[in-house]
């Protein structure tokens, strides 16, 4: 009897909106962690594994009689580059469709679809024994990421509507992304060395399965009907044409270019210039996790005090990224290299933490507060950088040199930073009424809308009673087509 009472009490607690919001954040953060761990865990595994497959396929003679290579090394580099880029390429192609799908069906079901596809791709990775199967698994991961990443970030933006809470929640999600990206290479390398290729992927598959079960148990995506009465989202092509959103999307792509282009090239440069050992190459990015988390923390705190300066925090981050990229070629030891890499990750934390909430803010004040398509655009920005990096970085280093690559990346970031000035007026807007709330001024379409409209009427009456004379009751905060605040007297009965 006591056990049944305890279980019912737990069910009641889990059904509370605040608890559900926290559990939702945990589910999304674990999904983002898994996606980024799966993205980076193959870095120390696949090159060595493919080299073994290549050697077994060309066992009779790897070298020609004159001692030159038979070209399999170059072919292997191309295979590795295409394999690494295939995830981002598929993600780039699917995101416009997944964003529209999320806007129409809500956030829960696409997250479950993404976790399911990621689970399948991880299992295929574990048991793949040829290049074609590995390529299929990597491409499937891109499909799963297009649903899981976009719907997860959009769900956070939807559940955390207050600016400070939203920045804090997205900052936590970014910390999990960073942890997954930077911890995965040593995690995969150690398990691959001592337990074999399958073990790292089996561990990730088990965690993915557990996260999916938690989503089904707590969030219950198939039983949710609140989305039925929510407004339709803005088409993704309209959002892409918005100049403010385009500037933010460009900044997200540009700031991630150094990371995307250095990951496939820095290991060879370290081995050839500073004769780094294998453990140093494996731990190259691990120290950068701590400044990344520090950057997230600092930006969240500053954004809470100065929300109108989000654009400035992003611009400062891009300048830090540019300066750090230019310093890398001058490093002569592993210890010297750690500092600029930490600077890059610190700058990326500033940009991401400042601009991801800004995308939701722009949608709130200029469009409908539905976030699938807007965060699909953000995911497209990341995918552009990580699709080009593995394919182009090696060619640029081969033809121009490693130093020139870093100088170009640094210069692009510094030159792009002033473009964020375009957001300074937008970030000063105070969206007291989002588009979603304005739509509720129309006749209610169902129980959900009726409840929301009644709550809003009560709040408006309370404001009028407590703030009489501060502003005529018929006035409402409006945003013009340029994104600037204007106070227009408008009758409360007008639509």
TrEMBL record:
Among SUPFAM superfamilies, the record links this protein to:
MFS general substrate transporter (SSF103473)
Give the source's domain of life in one word: Eukaryota
Q: Where is this region: Disordered?
A: 451-495
The residue ranges crossing the membrane are 23-46, 109-128, 169-192, 198-219, 239-262, 282-300, 312-331, 337-362, 374-397, 403-426
Q: Which UniProt keywords apply?
A: Glycoprotein, Membrane, Neurotransmitter transport, Transmembrane, Transmembrane helix, Transport
Query: Biased composition, Basic and acidic residues: where in the chain?
Result: 451-479
Cell compartment(s), UniProt: Membrane
Q: Which InterPro entries does the record match to this protein?
A: MFS, MFS_dom, MFS_trans_sf, MFS_Vesicular_Transporter, Tet-R_TetA/multi-R_MdtG-like
Protein's membrane topology: Multi-pass membrane protein
Occurrences of domain Major facilitator superfamily (MFS) profile (ranges): 24-495
Any one Gene Ontology MF annotation carried by this entry is: acetylcholine transmembrane transporter activity
Whether Glycoprotein counts among this entry's keywords is yes
One Gene Ontology CC term in the entry:
AP-1 adaptor complex
- The Polar residues compositionally biased stretches are 482-495
* GO biological process terms on file: chemical synaptic transmission; establishment of localization in cell; serotonin transport
What the entry lists under PROSITE patterns is as follows:
MFS (PS50850)
Q: Which family does it belong to?
A: Belongs to the major facilitator superfamily. Vesicular transporter family.
Please state what the protein is called: Major facilitator superfamily (MFS) profile domain-containing protein
Q: Which organism is it from?
A: Muraenolepis orangiensis (Patagonian moray cod)
């Amino acid at each position: 009897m006591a056990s049944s009472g305890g279980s019912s009490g737990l069910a009641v607690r889990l059904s509370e909106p605040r608890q559900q919001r926290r559990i939702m954040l945990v589910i999304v953060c674990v999904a983002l962690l898994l996606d980024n761990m799966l993205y980076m865990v193959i870095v120390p595994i696949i090159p060595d594994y493919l080299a073994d497959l290549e050697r077994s396929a060309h066992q009779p003679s790897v070298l020609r009689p004159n001692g030159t290579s038979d070209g399999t090394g170059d072919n292997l580099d191309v295979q590795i580059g295409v394999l690494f880029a295939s995830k981002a390429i598929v993600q780039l192609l699917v995101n416009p469709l997944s964003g529209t799908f999320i806007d129409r069906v809500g956030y829960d079901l696409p997250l479950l679809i993404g976790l399911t596809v990621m689970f399948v791709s991880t299992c295929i990775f574990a048991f793949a024994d040829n290049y074609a199967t590995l390529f299929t698994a990597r491409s499937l991961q891109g499909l799963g990421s297009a649903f899981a990443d976009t719907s997860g970030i959009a769900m956070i933006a939807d559940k955390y509507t207050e600016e400070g809470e939203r920045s804090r929640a997205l900052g936590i999600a970014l910390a999990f992304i960073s942890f997954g990206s930077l911890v995965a290479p040593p995690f995969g390398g150690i398990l691959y060395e001592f337990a074999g290729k399958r073990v790292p992927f089996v561990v990730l598959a088990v965690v993915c399965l557990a996260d999916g079960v938690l989503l089904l148990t707590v969030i219950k995506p198939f039983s949710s009907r609140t989305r039925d009465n929510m407004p339709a989202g803005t088409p993704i092509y309209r959002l892409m044409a918005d100049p403010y959103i385009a500037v933010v999307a460009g900044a997200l792509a540009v700031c991630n270019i150094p990371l995307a282009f250095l990951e496939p090239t820095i290991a060879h440069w370290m081995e050839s210039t500073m004769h780094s050992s294998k453990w140093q190459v494996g731990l190259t990015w691990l120290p950068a996790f701590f400044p990344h988390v520090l950057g997230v923390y600092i930006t969240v705190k500053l954004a809470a005090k100065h929300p109108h300066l989000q654009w400035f925090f992003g611009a400062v981050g891009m300048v830090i990224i540019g300066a750090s990229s230019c310093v890398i070629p001058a490093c002569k030891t592993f210890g010297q290299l750690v500092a600029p890499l930490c600077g890059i990750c610190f700058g990326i934390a500033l940009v991401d933490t400042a601009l991801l909430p800004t995308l939701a803010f722009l949608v709130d004040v200029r469009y409908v507060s539905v976030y699938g398509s807007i965060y699909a655009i953000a995911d497209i920005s990341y995918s552009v950088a990580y699709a080009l990096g593995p394919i182009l970085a090696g060619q640029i280093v081969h033809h121009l040199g490693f130093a020139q690559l870093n100088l170009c990346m640094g210069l692009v970031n510094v030159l792009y930073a002033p473009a964020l000035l375009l957001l300074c007026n937008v970030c000063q807007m105070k969206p007291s009424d989002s588009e979603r709330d304005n739509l509720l001024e129309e006749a209610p379409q169902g129980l959900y809308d009726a409840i929301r409209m009644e709550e809003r009427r009560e709040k408006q009456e309370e404001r009028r009673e407590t703030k009489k004379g501060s502003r005529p009751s018929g006035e409402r905060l409006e945003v013009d087509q340029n994104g600037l605040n204007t106070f227009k007297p408008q009758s409360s009965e007008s639509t």
